[in-house]
Amino acid sequence: MMTLFGIPTAALFGQLLLGLINGAFYAVLSLGLALIFGLLNIINFSHGAQYMMGAFVAWLGLTYMGANYWVALALAPLVVAAIGIVLERTMLSRLYKLDHLYGLLLTFGLALIIEGIFRQLYGISGIPYAVPKELAGGWNLGFMYLPIYRAWVVIASLVLCVGTWLLIEKTKLGAYLRAATENPALVQAMGINVPIMITLTYGFGVALAAFAGVLAAPIYSVNPLMGSNLIIVVFAVVVIGGMGSIMGSIVTGFMLGLLEGLTKVIYPEAASTVIFMVMVVVLLIKPAGLFGKGA
Amino acid sequence: MRNESSALLKVDGLEAWYGESHILHGMNFEVHKGEVVTLLGRNGAGKTTTMKSVMGMVGKRKGSITFEGVETINLSSNKIARLGVALCPEERGIFSSLTVKENMVLPPIVKPGGLPLAEVYDLFPRLLERGGSQGTKLSGGEQQMLAIARILRTGATMLLLDEPTEGLAPVIVQHIGDIIRKLKERGFTILLVEQNFHFAATVADRHYVVEHGHVIDMIPNAELTSNMAKLKGYLGV
Ligand SMILES: Nc1ncnc2c1ncn2[C@@H]1O[C@H](COP(=O)(O)OP(=O)(O)OP(=O)(O)O)[C@@H](O)[C@H]1O
Ligand SMILES: [Mg+2]
Predict the structure, then answer these.
(1) Which residues of chain B have a CB within 8 Å of the CB of A174?
(2) What are the residue ranges spanned by the domains of chain A?
């Protein structure tokens, strides 16, 4: 058996891969939160519920309409974004001028309601969702076994994150978004329809969550509680990375996933708390987060 | 005398509120095509609020504001911008997450006929040199130049400049004066807020004096010297 620092390589890389996969979800989810927080000034606590809805739309589509995984990957984000847009137009848009706390409370309440509905309908035992046949199986890399689907999740998430970052940092649309994050009134006075931009940004952030939900469905089972389990960690990631920082969310998400995986190998007892310990340390030393601006 | 219909911008009985505070109490003034007109007045008189109201950025407004004959009192600011009105705000509004170049080309083209980017850079060569830097890394004067420069290429014909000389060194103030005269020659119509009436006198055709949210006097620039004592009284200087 091969070992590295006295740890069997298969176990080490296996855990690192799991960490990387969790990290991919942290990154995609915290990226959406960062976008939404930046422009809407709202801490979107229903993000986890929207991630869960993504997985459920995939499963419902498969069960009732025969829509396969790839169709779900394209459609679930749109469906969940559409629901998000309705929420934004009818409720969130009334809160922008108020303190963050109100948006947080509203979206927290919405998350509880959405989760409650799905619990009522589908229970909490979880529903399996098969890995698409194109991505079934795995590769033996010699030092570890790599399931193809897991490699796909990491790569798809990375592409999505980098693509979103490029969109924001390198395009005209991204410049509008960055500018409107700083001073929406002035951007609107230049002739941009900022309210529509805000609505679409919320929709996009929600779509990212739903996309992650579809990616997650074959790995974890489809479960009404899958979002609330994850979102607490994601909020810790957001705090560590710096609220509202795009690059911060992406890098911190992947790094913390890896750190979690590594901890599982080295000191498994701490694996579920290591991210929160990092959060405490970061809050004490750099309260604005590793990538955050200002105090 | 010019006739009424040649007013490009006409503000009539304008009232404006920030939340519960009633700030403008019946502002009346007009700006004709090609004119440079100033709003003078003490701190807190309501000059900035007037500019923002014309731009559609104040939540609650009443009365009438017409631009090229179009009533804008109930339009949102993005629609007003699309008519050809552009604001250079008092706080300059340079975006720190954008480069100088990105700041420059941020405002969309709303109409044909704006200055080509090359000409804008001819007026402000420094901005071309600093194109790659972060917007807010520019000096105060350069940021002011950028705030003016970026609204020149949009095709807006009415420029609202809110205290463009505030806090700047005399040479830069002079440069901004030159720019404003050039813009006037190019056919831009300019509404200017100024604290410094010595500067205002070098660029403007007419001056409105604002106090407590309404216009209390109008002085043509040619009559400024003869009205100096009165003006100083208004402004408390
Ligand atoms: N956002 C706001 N909310 C509430 N009141 C405001 C706001 N902005 C300005 N005011 C008040 O409105 C009044 C007019 O302000 P305004 O900024 O229009 O004055 P100004 O003539 O531009 O003054 P200055 O020469 O100092 O720039 C002031 O009493 C000010 O306190
Ligand atoms: Mg002012």
Answers:
(1) none
(2) 16-285
CB of residue B150 inside a 6 A radius of ligand 1: no
Architecture of the domain whose range is B4-235 = 3-Layer(aba) Sandwich (3.40)
Q: Which two tokens stand for residue A182?
A: 């700083």
Nearest Cα residue to B126 out of B151, B148, B110: B148
Q: Is the CB of B213 under 6 A from ligand 1?
A: no
With beta carbons less than 8 A apart as the criterion, state whether A132 and A69 touch.
yes
Which burial class, exposed, middle or buried, applies to B202 when counting CB atoms under 10 A from its CB (0-12, 13-18, 19+)?
middle
Where do we find the tokens 């105060």? B140
This prediction has a pTM of: 0.88
- Cα-to-centroid distance, B24 and ligand 1 (Å): 10
Pick the CATH number of A16-285 from 1.10.3470, 3.30.70, 3.30.1490, 3.60.21: 1.10.3470
pLDDT digits (tens, 9 = 90+) for A243-292: 778 888 899 999 999 999 889 888 888 888 899 998 999 999 988 888 87
Give residue A191's region: left, alpha or beta (phi > 0; psi -120 to 50): left
Chains A and B: how many Cβ contacts under 8 Å?
A: 55
Q: Which helix (H) or strand (E) holds A75?
A: helix A69-90
Quick one: CA dihedral A194, A195, A197, A198, positive or negative? positive
For residue B213, give the ligand 1 atom closest to its CA. 14
**A175–B96 CB contact, under 8 Å:** no
Under 8 Å CB-to-CB from A45, ≥6 apart: which residues? A104, A107, A108, A110, A111, A231
**Ligand 1 neighbourhood includes B95 CB (under 6 angstroms):** no
Residue of minimum CA distance from atom 5 in ligand 1: B18
The predicted pLDDT at position A247 comes to 87
B43 lines ligand 1 (CB under 6 A): yes
Neighbour-count burial of A261, counting CB atoms closer than 10 A to its CB (0-12 exposed, 13-18 middle, 19+ buried): buried
Q: Where are the domains of chain B?
A: 4-235
**Chain A touched by B56 (CB under 8 Å):** yes
Closest atom of ligand 1 to CA, residue B210:
21
The values of phi and psi at residue B165, to 5°, are -100, 0
Cα dihedral A202, A208, A214, A219, rounded to 10, equals: -130
